[in-house]
Amino acid sequence: MNYEYEGLKLKNQLCFPLYASSRLIVRLYGPVLEPLGLTYTKYIVMLALWEKDNIGLKELGGILFLDSGTLTPLLKKLEIQGLVTRERNLEDERNINIKLTDRGKRLKETAKDIPAKIGSCINMSARDLKELHRLLHIILENNKESQCLGL
Amino acid sequence: MNYEYEGLKLKNQLCFPLYASSRLIVRLYGPVLEPLGLTYTKYIVMLALWEKDNIGLKELGGILFLDSGTLTPLLKKLEIQGLVTRERNLEDERNINIKLTDRGKRLKETAKDIPAKIGSCINMSARDLKELHRLLHIILENNKESQCLGL
DNA sequence: ATTTAATAAATTGAATACAATTAAATTGTA
DNA sequence: TACAATTTAATTGTATTCAATTTATTAAAT
Lengths: 151, 151
Fold this sequence. Notes:
Two copies of one chain form a homodimer. By secondary structure, the first copy, chain A, is mostly helical. The first copy, chain A, contains seven helices and three strands. Chain A has a domain at about 30-110: Winged helix-like DNA-binding domain superfamily/Winged helix DNA-binding domain (Arc Repressor Mutant, subunit A), CATH 1.10.10.10. Chain A has helices at about 15-35, 40-50, 55-65, 70-80, 100-110, 115-120, 125-140; strands spanning about 55, 85-90, 95-100. In chain A, a hairpin with a 7-residue loop joins strand 2 (about 85-90) and strand 3.
């Protein structure tokens, strides 16, 4: 038997189930977020801002692992929706400060049931959930300043 | 203390680390696949075909959790690259059969070192890797015919 | 003080994802 | 047989992602 190609089998991939389940769960959010006028990416931006308001784009990107190429157009849309404001930092005009509007702050109230709603769709024991959480964070931490990626 | 909004904290999200680490690892593949003329999505299509050649688009989509909207343009590109052929099934012309060309088959040889190359970037014990694998497959299995999603 | 280097955001272009619709082929049924 | 329902790909339109480039601003060095 030739084991030379074992690593190429889908069932032996780590990335594939990661990629597939990520998309699966993001898709789960779609109809739940739609009434709030949010997409999944907009939602995690709002999550970050609800925890820390008045933050620079760079810092926001550091938290969410997203760069200005993704965030700039996204934040402009959130601004048009009246959920955030974007203004240059007066002390250093290279930076931009993102702030929640009152409407953006109030949306938190509407959003607070979403985690439970999504959670009920993921049929997994609390123990497994916690373990999955731990393992994913190992990946994120390992690659935060990876020698493999130039992040 | 008000715990009403605990579920909205990023650190309590399951989806966020799933989403972030998936993107992180897909990005890891970029420079590794580039010399082969493949993107990550093209790569998993090739992985599936190396395991089962001459397969319908629908069946391929079932394996990879992708629909014709994603696969049709992707397969056309792989066809232009000379890695696959697309032909209507003569018995049922609604279906299309995807076959590897000789060149597509030979690419497997070039690709066989990729899993080890990526693996070396993911600093995780064999035990943790296996556990992560198991947990991700729980999510995929649970939602394969979910009551929450209309897949 | 000038010039150079570094940093942050915005822009551009390529490649997905995916919902929704359309078109073609097949199946089931009256 | 006709016709409605179903199935499969393809198409369309919207929303990301991300690498690479550009522009503006600030910091560092001469």
